[in-house]
Amino acid sequence: MSDATFRVMLRMQIKPGMEADFERVWKEVGGSVTSDPANRGQWLSRSTTADEDGVYYIISDWVDEPQFRRFETSDTHLSHRTKLHPYRSGGSMATMDIVASLSGAAA
Asked: Would you indicate the residue range of the signal peptide (predicted)?
């Protein structure tokens, strides 16, 4: 297995008052992402920045970009997105290749 990792970071603005439901549904449908053989893991984070109320970041790691793009256009992903869409009021996506990694003392 290659050590290369393709990372996807989604920034999602959630409609006010819907944060708890969004988190619950994200956990319920997350297996549709992590069960893909090319997925290395997925994380949901809530922003603590004062001007980012209701903002979440979803990070998912993939074996490579072509396999992520295959998943991105799959029926499985479309179904996943459809279940989360009612909670969103906006968002963006950034993609990147991890070029280096350092473990911290607490690891």
From this structure: none
Nearest to 54 by CA among 25, 24, 17, 29: 17
Tokens of 65: 């970009």
pLDDT tens series, the chain, 107 aa: 457 899 999 999 999 999 999 999 999 999 999 999 999 999 999 999 999 999 999 999 999 999 999 999 999 999 989 999 999 999 999 999 999 999 999 98
Q: Where are the domains of the chain?
A: 7-94
pTM of this prediction? 0.90
String of DSSP letters for 35-50:
TSTTEEEEEEEE---T
In the CATH hierarchy, which fold is given to the domain comprising 7-94?
A: Alpha-Beta Plaits (3.30.70)
